[in-house]
Amino acid sequence: MHSPPGPLVDSRRLVAASGPAVFRRGQEYFRTGRVRAVRWSPGAEGSGSLSAEVEGSGSVYSVSVRVGAGGAPGPAWCSCPAGGFCKHAVATVLRHNFETAVRAHQQGGTAAPSSPAGAAAPEGAAPRAGTAPGRRGGAPDWKDALTEILGGPDPADPPAEEPEGVALEFDLRREPYRYVHGTGRAGSPWHLYVRPVRRGRRGGWIKGGLDWESVTADAGRWSLSPAQVDWFDELRALSATRSPYAVHDRHWIRLDSYASPLLWGILARAETAGITLVGREHGLPVTVEEPGRFHVDVLRGPGKDLELRPTVDSGGRRIALGTARIIGDPGHGLFAPDGDPQDVADTEDLNVFPLRLVPLATRLTREQRRFLDTAGGLRIPEDEVEEFFDRYFPRLHRSMDVDTGDGSIELPQVADPELVLTLEHQELTIRARWEWEYQKGRDRILLPFRPEDPLADEPVHRESSWETAVTAAVRHRAPGVDFRRSSYVAQDALVLVREWLPALEKVPDLRIEHTGGRMAYQQIADPPTITVSTAATERRDWFDLGVTVKVGEFYISFADVFRALDLGQDVMLAPDGSWFSLDRPEFDRLRELIAEARSLQETPEGPLRIHRHQAGLWQDFEDVATDTDQAEAWREGVRSLLELEALEAPPVPATLHAELRPYQRDGYSWLSVLWDHGLGGILADDMGLGKTVQAIALICRAVERDPDLPPFLVVAPTSVVPNWTAEIRRFAPSLPVVGVTDTQAKAGTDLVDAAAGARVVVTSYTLLRLDEAAYRGMPWAGVLLDEAQFVKNPRTKAHRAAKDLDAPFKLAITGTPLENSLVELWALLSLTAPGLFPSRRKFTETYQRPIERGEDAAALARLRRRVKPLMLRRTKESVDLELPPKLEQTIEVELSPAHRRIYDTRLQRERQKVLGLLRDLDRNRFTIFQSLTTLRLLSLDASLVDPTADVSSSKLDLLFEHLPEIVAEGHRPLVFSQFTSFLKKAAARLDELRIPYAYLDGSTTDRARVLERFTSGQVPVFLVSLKAGGFGLNLTQADYCFLLDPWWNPATEEQAVDRTHRIGQQKKVMVYRLVARDTIEEKVMELKERKARLFTAVLDDDRMFSSALTAEDIRGLLTP
């Protein structure tokens, strides 16, 4: 919405207020549309104010104009340097008049200034009422309206006066030095001041009220043209670039302090703008010369002396600079009185001479300015002329132009100094010498790169700053160059020639000279031939690993190649100077493999070796090599392992009374290869795929081939020992088997006597630990570690006891070779294949940490390649078992309100305690896990933590809603829990319902009888603790599984479930996991999923997930 229109402003008064020149410039600004929207703010009694923004030269200015009653222009304000009634204020008023008249015309009315009575309406104003008959609706005549809109004097007014003559007056002053004692002017520097002047009535140049403010603010008063106002505006604006220490006021500006060379362009336009440049005295002329060139004249003085005179050539004239002064800092021009130098020197007031202003083609350098300060030049005595030419003339010549003005002397030709690199070639050695070459008189001399004695006199002046700059340029182009190095041999010589010389040749002021016979240094284009070999050593399991590289006609030591690779070199030199690139993928891969091989051997600093267990590493070497040369023993063992599928499967031994499935025959063949070559491994098939029968088949074959073998030792959990003896008698009745169930002390029989005549001895991990010395003292044909996760902790005594057993063959049998950490996998391999990863520390650094942190996908892939030849794993999904489906479902259990209150209250307390302990997880681990266990128990049954809590268990309520019906339909359910206290509460409920059941936990002594009750069908329900039921059970009679509480180790759960979903199962298996909603159990399920992904990543695919139970994991368990 627009403000109410204000009155038209009287154009005649506007001209009077601004002056004709400023008015015309305001008209131009208005016509070119520089005024942004004008705002009218009404005041009292018809007055008001106008405000607008106007686009100036590079800036936008704010304008405010007061308008009095009757349209009289009042005071104006503008943010431009001129201020007052400037061109921007005029343009604002004209824009207002235009908009007001157009609005009045569109509305059919009139808009006229309210002139005082009897005053004639200004030209262009709308007529008063009753005038101009015939004008429709009182609308103003278009000529009147446009005249008012565009402004300007009445056509009847006399023509405007011609602009007055104006000039820029120059004044040379000598000012006393400041900040020193005395104020005398003698010896003080001359400075150049300027001010605007106008022509007086007598024709002379006078100040006449002009100064640097009024020349633009009151331009109309002086009848200045727009071009003249602009010129003074520019000159004054440029004064902002002058030195902050220059003296100036509103009358005078010091011109020689102008820092910008734009000054010369302004002075050159003075004549075009109608401005005269005059001196202070008598209007003497001031001339702006053509751009000049500074140089030094070397002249023959009296006798044989020399004279050095600073000179400027301008427009073909040579200006002596004895009386010249500098404009700007650094100087971009000069001013000099135009008179005889002696007269100038003898004159007190230099304003009596015409003035010459000389712009310089280039700014003065520091050295040129200093030369000007000599005030007339320098004289060199005859006996010092030679020193001048030797030591000073080359420097002078480099810093400024030097001529001989009168031809009285012949100047020597000056060559710039250079840095000289001399390279002396001697076969594969290059000797380097750095020197500086300077001119001395008419000769060139060489100086050492660094002065031998910094205090000694040099034959010529050394330019330290220039030398520093050249040295920096060399270092920038070739950062590896060492100026102190004098010899480059072989590889270093190649780097010098191939890399550094091309860069050095681009450095200015550097000359390179060669002496001696230069080698060709040609590239060998043929690809290298790589041969990898193994050679037997005095140690049966370790082989020397050799790598040979042939390039062209030369054999290169792999040690040299990889030393070069380790040093980061990308090329290598052959004996004849030819070279080949190391930037090849096969070399990069070899470097990685050799580094890995060294990290795996027992003594990394010794000869490069590879262990028989490292078949996966050898396979990677073969992939890179062009050819291989293998020791016979190595070829027989490792090649068989790597080419298992191509080998003819060994016949199944006749003494095995079992029909092997196809995948079991493959497992038996793999075990046979391991056995034949004395290699251990891990049989890691899924639970229920028949790992036991595959192992028994291997024992049968071994005994058939060598009846004199010592017995095999099978180590298993205590509860599984009877199962092993039974399975051997079932599948290999010809093999005498002994089950050891007591320690030697308790049995009263030595182990040697107990094992006499046996082909297989079966014992428990407990007895192995207790009678470690006895088992260690007997030779064994082989050791089979069943449920090998029992020895997954390398710090336990059981693990150490298994490691010390005397057997050439060890096999770990487990469906879960890792559960929580990759260290568990290393622990099993350290028992069965100790040469694969000899060092736990190296394994941790190379594999465990990067993989468990999710940082290194390549490390995971590499680990799988290394382990693959020595670990066989098949899942149920990967073999055709034709098992019925296993359907799994997670059921969320809602806690009752009373149960929820108890849980939430305890959760807050335990959370506060645990979060405070996480700062030192290792030290507080026991307390932390105690709190987590408390919360897990509360999720099951509040009475497990607080016996006085009279709250029913929501999980048991849900279980027993379905269990009686399931039993009634003839199904056989298994009920698992990690907590025996909770299992016993389930047992109590079964007792109340009179449903018979079997119960098994770690304290059960007669395990076989308990199993018999369920497998024979005497009882329909089997309550099993998760730990006790995780191994050694074959429960295919069951077809329902209830997991009452989740555990963060998924392998433990899977082992328990697969007691029933395995070979022999004929019915569909239903698995239900009961999880209390909004409790720690939900977090346990999330953590379990992450651990399952780790297991899969290492054993089944290439995904990477972290597995370690960290402080962050524990925080997640406690997060609401």
Describe the structure in brief.
With 1120 residues, this protein is an alpha/beta fold. 35% of the residues lie in helices and 20% in strands. The chain starts with 10 loop residues before the first helix and ends with a helix.
Topology, pairings included?
Layout: H1 11-18, H2 20-31, E1 39-42, E2 48-55, E3 60-67, E4 73-78, H3 87-107, H4 142-150, E5 166-174, E6 190-199, E7 205-206, H5 214-217, H6 226-238, E8 253-254, H7 263-268, E9 275-279, E10 286-288, E11 292-300, E12 306-314, E13 317-320, E14 325-327, E15 333-337, H8 341-346, E16 355-359, H9 366-372, E17 378-380, H10 385-399, E18 402-403, E19 418-426, E20 429-440, E21 443-448, H11 464-477, E22 487-489, H12 491-504, E23 510-516, E24 529-536, E25 542-551, E26 554-557, H13 558-566, E27 571-573, E28 579-581, H14 585-600, E29 609-611, H15 615-624, E30 627-629, H16 632-642, H17 662-676, E31 681-683, H18 691-705, E32 712-716, H19 721-731, E33 737-739, H20 744-747, H21 751-754, E34 760-764, H22 765-770, H23 772-777, E35 782-786, H24 797-803, E36 810-813, H25 822-832, H26 840-852, H27 857-867, E37 871-872, E38 886-893, H28 897-917, H29 921-940, H30 954-968, E39 973-977, H31 980-993, E40 997-1000, H32 1007-1015, E41 1021-1025, E42 1040-1043, H33 1050-1057, E43 1069-1076, H34 1080-1099, H35 1111-1118
Parallel strand pairs: 5-9, 10-16, 11-18, 19-23, 24-30, 31-36, 31-37, 32-34, 32-35, 33-34, 35-36, 38-43, 39-41, 39-42, 40-41, 42-43
Antiparallel strand pairs: 1-2, 2-3, 3-4, 5-6, 6-7, 6-8, 11-12, 12-13, 12-17, 14-15, 15-16, 19-20, 20-21, 20-22, 24-25, 25-26, 25-29, 27-28
Helix pairs in contact: 1-2, 2-3, 3-4, 14-15, 15-16, 17-18, 18-19, 26-27, 28-29, 34-35
